């Protein structure tokens, strides 16, 4: 053995980190479940109503998506066999991109393998050490990772506070950055509230910045024909949609200009150096995009349920966010208390996961309830009755 090298210690940092995490009540573990239908699952042999999935319209179990997946697999096989620039671009990839651009009212669209991958690879393609990124305080971790990789300077503005953003812009334009990028979400994944898309577009134009909007939680359930809060709006350089939430499948896409699309195809590593999405996935997305515009009734029902649950929670005295989306968090604060409530619900047949730091800011541990158009009124009332009991006990 080489002197000075103690082999037994090389993984100490891992054990130490895990011990520390456990001490803070923050250890995370994977828990397998088995889906039954749009809103029920089986966990440890027990049937639970799922109030935590992002399957807002229950599309992940929709027969036409499943059939399209099977048909595309029959015709094209299980894998796309290469990256997009090699032999991974099938006609189905191109057709889907054209369909997405059209239905979103944009010039062009480009598929990405996941929303996380898109955010972490597109942002560094747009900005560098000489640039500044301005983002909302509560943006998704994938946006932060993209900013870190870009090596740009970055500042956060107070959550949804566009006057704070404007103060930062006023200073920034005098500081000689080569580019300024504003990046935020349209619907915040852990709060359920929305940003002012028109206000962001206006500031971006006034201060001549790039504008990147993550529409992951709006696609399928908000905006014209359910195509998100950025659809049919000009003045957004890139908007990101993901297919793993309301679309019920997997993957992501951006809508953008032809110019930016060409640039990313040539200069974006996370697009270039990865295998194209497989046919089964493209099939289900394609079927979902055909279906989504016709689901106004489901969206209206969902909207009614959102108002109802939010109001009931307020009446019971729970601390809620300013949510106008199916994401309805109840802020508990303490991590252990949040886990206790989640456990209580599970004992009584409801799956509602506790979300803890660092996913959310310190002292804001929460239960993030998520509604689906497939939840029956009785299921929502049952949840409310349990929350009433818990609050009173
Ligand atoms: C879920 C999510 C992502 C990641 O998308 P995936 O396709 O699941 O990787 C990115 N941004 C936001 C705001 C999200 O909620």
From TrEMBL:
Query: Which superkingdom?
Result: Bacteria
- Which top EC class is named for this enzyme in its record? transferase
GO biological process, alphabetically ordered: biotin biosynthetic process
Q: Which reaction does it catalyse?
A: 6-carboxyhexanoyl-[ACP] + L-alanine + H(+) = (8S)-8-amino-7-oxononanoate + holo-[ACP] + CO2
Residue(s) carrying N6-(pyridoxal phosphate)lysine: 245
Query: In its keyword annotation, does this UniProt entry include DNA repair?
Result: no
* Span of domain Aminotransferase class I/classII large: 47-385
Tell me which cofactor or cofactors this protein depends on: pyridoxal 5'-phosphate
Q: Does the keyword Electron transport apply?
A: no
Which Enzyme Commission numbers does its entry carry? 2.3.1.47
Keyword terms of this UniProt record:
Acyltransferase, Biotin biosynthesis, Pyridoxal phosphate, Transferase
Pfam hit, one: Aminotran_1_2
Q: Part of which pathway?
A: Cofactor biosynthesis; biotin biosynthesis
| GO function term, MF aspect, one | pyridoxal phosphate binding
Q: Which family does it belong to?
A: Belongs to the class-II pyridoxal-phosphate-dependent aminotransferase family. BioF subfamily.
How does the annotation summarize its subunit structure? Homodimer.
What is this protein for, i.e. what is its function? Catalyzes the decarboxylative condensation of pimeloyl-[acyl-carrier protein] and L-alanine to produce 8-amino-7-oxononanoate (AON), [acyl-carrier protein], and carbon dioxide.
UniProt protein name: 8-amino-7-ketopelargonate synthase
């Amino acid at each position: 053995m080489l002197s000075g090298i103690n082999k037994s210690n090389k993984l100490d940092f891992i054990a130490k980190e895990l011990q520390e995490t456990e001490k803070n009540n923050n250890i995370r573990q994977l828990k397998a479940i088995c889906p039954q239908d749009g809103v029920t699952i089986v966990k440890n042999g027990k049937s639970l109503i799922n109030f935590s999935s992002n399957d807002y319209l229950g599309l992940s179990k929709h027969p036409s998506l499943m059939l399209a997946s099977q048909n595309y697999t029959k015709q094209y096989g299980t894998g796309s066999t290469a990256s997009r620039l090699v032999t991974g671009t099938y006609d189905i990839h191109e057709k889907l991109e054209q369909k997405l651009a059209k239905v979103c009212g944009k010039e062009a669209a480009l598929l990405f393998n996941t929303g996380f991958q898109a955010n972490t690879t597109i942002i560094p393609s747009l900005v560098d050490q000489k640039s500044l990124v301005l983002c909302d305080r509560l943006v998704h971790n994938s946006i932060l990772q993209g900013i870190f990789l870009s090596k740009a300077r970055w500042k956060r503005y107070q959550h949804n506070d566009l006057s704070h953003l404007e103060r930062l812009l006023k200073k920034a334009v005098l500081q000689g950055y080569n580019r300024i990028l504003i990046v935020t979400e349209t619907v915040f994944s852990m709060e359920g509230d929305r940003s002012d898309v028109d206000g962001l577009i206006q500031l971006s134009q006034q201060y001549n910045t790039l504008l990147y909007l993550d529409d992951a939680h709006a696609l399928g359930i908000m905006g014209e024909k359910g195509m998100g809060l950025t659809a049919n709006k000009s003045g957004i350089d890139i908007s990101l949609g993901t297919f793993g939430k309301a679309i019920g499948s997997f993957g992501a896409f951006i809508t953008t200009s032809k110019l930016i699309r060409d640039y990313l195809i040539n200069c974006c590593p996370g697009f270039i150096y990865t295998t194209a999405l497989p046919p089964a996935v493209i099939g289900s997305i394609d079927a979902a995009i055909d279906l989504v515009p016709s689901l106004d009734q489901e969206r209206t029902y969902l909207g009614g349920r959102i108002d109802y649950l939010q109001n009931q929670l307020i009446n019971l005295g729970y601390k809620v966010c300013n949510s106008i989306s199916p994401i309805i968090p109840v802020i508990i604060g303490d991590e252990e208390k949040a886990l206790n409530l989640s456990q209580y619900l599970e004992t009584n047949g409801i799956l509602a996961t506790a979300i803890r730091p660092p996913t959310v800011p310190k002292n804001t541990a929460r239960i993030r309830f998520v509604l689906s158009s497939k939840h029956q009124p009785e299921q929502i009332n049952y949840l409310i009755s349990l929350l009433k009991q818990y609050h009173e006990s």
